[in-house]
Amino acid sequence: MLAIDRDLMWLERLNRHPVLRARMESLLGVVEDAAADLEKADAAERGIENFVHAQPTDHADDGSWRIWAARDRSVRDSGR
After folding, report:
1. What is the reported pLDDT for 72?
2. Residue 60, exposed/middle/buried by CB under 10 A (0-12, 13-18, 19+)?
3. Are 51 and 21 spatial neighbours (Cβ–Cβ below 8 Å)?
4. Domain residues of the chain, as ranges?
5. Within its chain, how far is the Cα of 78 from the centroid?
6. What are the pLDDT tens digits along the chain (80 aa)?
7. Cα separations (Å) of 63 from 2, 4, 22, 31, 80?
8. pLDDT in the model for residue 59
9. Which region holds residue 17: left if phi is over 0, alpha if psi is between -120 and 50, else beta?
10. Alpha carbons 60 and 52: distance in angstroms, whole number
11. CA angle 21, 71, 50 (to 5 degrees)
């Protein structure tokens, strides 16, 4: 699958979840504004994780976001 196709698929999926899209846009804004401030960017990412964990499964693509967030946290905590 071409990268453009994957990008379009991602955007279509994200558009089906307006609350999640708004949070992702917020995260991107913080990351872009805080390029030198990694603590602020990490805090924004943790905020997105917490938001995803609080969502009902049907708003998180049958739990795939929760799985991603748990794996991401595990990798970050282990330093790998």
Report:
1. 66
2. buried
3. no
4. 3-78
5. 19
6. 688 888 999 899 989 988 888 888 888 887 777 655 777 777 878 888 888 777 766 555 556 666 666 766 666 676 55
7. 26, 25, 19, 25, 23
8. 52
9. beta
10. 7
11. 45
Structure tokens at 65: 């976001």
CA-nearest of 63, 60, 25, 61 to 44 is 25
Look up tokens 């089906």; give the residue.
16
Which pLDDT score, from 0 to 100, does residue 19 have? 87
Instruction: Please state, in angstroms and rounded to a whole number, the distance separating the CA atoms of residues 55 and 62.
Output: 11
Q: Position of tokens 């708003």?
A: 59
pLDDT at 12: 93
